[in-house]
Amino acid sequence: MSLESIKSLVDELTALHIGRGVQPSDLIDNMFEDAYVESATRKTSSGMVFEITFLDSDEDEGPVKVTMRYTYDCDRYLVLIEQKVAAKRFTAQWDRATSVRKRVEALEALLMENLPQEKVASILSTIPADFVSMFPRLSLVA
Predict the structure, then answer these.
(1) Are the CB atoms for 52 and 68 separated by under 8 Å?
(2) Are 79 and 97 in contact (CB under 8 A)?
(3) Do the beta carbons of residue 21 and residue 77 sit within 8 Å?
């Protein structure tokens, strides 16, 4: 069990819990730059979706439209970033739930190397409620 690895994972989870991610107001500032050509915002039942489109240079074809889609929950946390290049479909670039899940699973694996299951369960029970709600399995441990 590497204490530095555990500390790093805890720090990353803390940053994900505290930080809300890039906010729409930060993104809209980009619209003043020449490469950005349009933006759109829509409210959903679970939060908000913000799309911003810019022109990027493709070495072979010249300028290509790139659209970035940022999805937020009702608490203004960034939960998903997707990208679409030209006429292709949106593909996920970052997913909050996946990011949290990978770190929690890595933390659990590191702890299980040298600690009894009861101690690991006790440690995992301190994980914030919003993370537990993403992964019901954690509530069984907590």
Answers:
(1) yes
(2) yes
(3) yes
Tokens of 50: 């913000």
- What SS3 state is found at 60? coil
Residues 6+ apart with CB under 8 A from 79: 47, 71, 72, 73, 95, 96, 97
- What is the value of pTM for the model shown? 0.84
**Phi, psi torsion values for 126, nearest 5 degrees:** -90, 0
In which residue are the tokens 């907590």 written?
Answer: 142
The full set of domain ranges for the chain reads 3-19+97-141, 24-95
The H or E element spanning position 15 is helix 3-18
- Return left, alpha or beta for 38; rule: phi > 0 is left, psi -120 to 50 is alpha, else beta: beta
State the Cα–Cα distance between residues 52 and 74, nearest whole angstrom. Answer: 20
- Per-residue pLDDT of 62-95, as tens digits, reads 889 999 999 999 999 999 999 999 999 999 999 9
Give φ, ψ of 74 to 5 degrees. -65, -20
Q: Kindly give the parts of the chain with pLDDT less than 70.
A: 1, 135-142
Q: Rounded to a whole number, what is the distance in angstroms from the first to the last CA of the chain?
A: 22
